[in-house]
Design goal:
The complex is a heterodimer of chains A (111) and B (113). Chain A is mainly β and 111 residues long. Chain A is built from no helices and eleven strands. In chain A, strand 9 and strand 10 form a beta hairpin. The radius of gyration of chain A is 13 Å and the shape is globular. Helix content of chain B is 0%, strand content 53%. Chain B has no helices and eleven strands. In chain B, a hairpin with a 5-residue loop joins strand 7 and strand 8. In chain B, 40% of the residues are buried. The mean pLDDT of chain B is 94. Classes of the chains: A mainly beta (111), B mainly beta (113).
């Protein structure tokens, strides 16, 4: 069962514009969320996280927003750069010691 | 600081065989998790080990097993391989688990013929 859903398999944006990647989850008990970025032939790398006690966390060009009532989180990248082109996964901590990942969204930033 | 190392990087097997994949975590990391990545499915959690004990297991058949050694290195084993086991297998480590950001290896690409 897909407890974490990324409904957009791909997203294309122009360099300098905003990229918004979305993620929905099903279990209101999830309390910690992370975003990972993955380049081809490499493992995912951690990008940014947010706890359910917050609704926003910012790190440089990356901001994650959490809407608990809607069970929705989003990752904003501003401004987008060609080097941001990768697959982005959202993930949530489940049952304390395992992580559940979405299917990923492939972001392409065009020069 | 060396990252997470997975060996081998690529593996080709035939149906019915078994395979063992290896993962060396970052020094000092005691939690090791395994994931299967297939196109369109994202990362599916297999299991997590901490101090040689399996703490959690995902929804995979018993053909998938793992273990962790006293030096935190981990292996996963898949027996009676099926075509559907073709995937990228990723290992990730963190200091103690519990949702901490994980450091991933580059994976082992397993192909079943």
């Amino acid at each position: 069962d897909q407890q974490v859903k990324q409904n957009s398999p791909s997203l294309s944006v122009q360099e300098g514009r905003i990229s918004i990647l979305n993620c929905d989850y099903t279990n209101s008990m999830f309390d910690y969320f992370l975003w990972y970025k993955k380049y081809p032939a490499e493992g995912p790398t951690f990008l940014i996280s947010i706890s359910s006690i917050k609704d926003k966390n910012e790190d440089g060009r990356f901001t994650v927003f959490l809407n608990k009532s809607a069970k929705h989180l989003s990752l904003h990248i501003v401004p987008s750069q060609p080097g941001d082109s990768a697959v982005y996964f959202c993930a949530t901590q489940y049952n304390n010691n395992d992580m559940r990942f979405g299917a990923g969204t492939r972001l392409t930033v065009k020069p | 600081k060396a990252g997470v190392t997975q060996t081998p990087r690529y593996l080709i097997k035939t149906r019915g065989q078994q395979v063992t994949l290896s993962c060396s975590p970052i020094s000092g990391h005691r939690s090791v998790s395994w994931y299967q990545q297939t196109p369109g499915q994202g990362l599916q959690f297999l299991f997590e080990y901490f101090s040689e004990t399996q703490r959690n297991k995902g929804n995979f058949p018993g053909r998938f097993s793992g273990r962790q050694f006293s030096n935190s290195r981990s292996e996963m084993n898949v027996s009676t391989l099926e075509l559907g086991d073709s995937a990228l297998y990723l290992c990730a480590s963190s200091p103690t688990g519990g949702g901490q950001p994980q450091h991933f290896g580059d994976g082992t690409r397993l192909s079943i013929l």
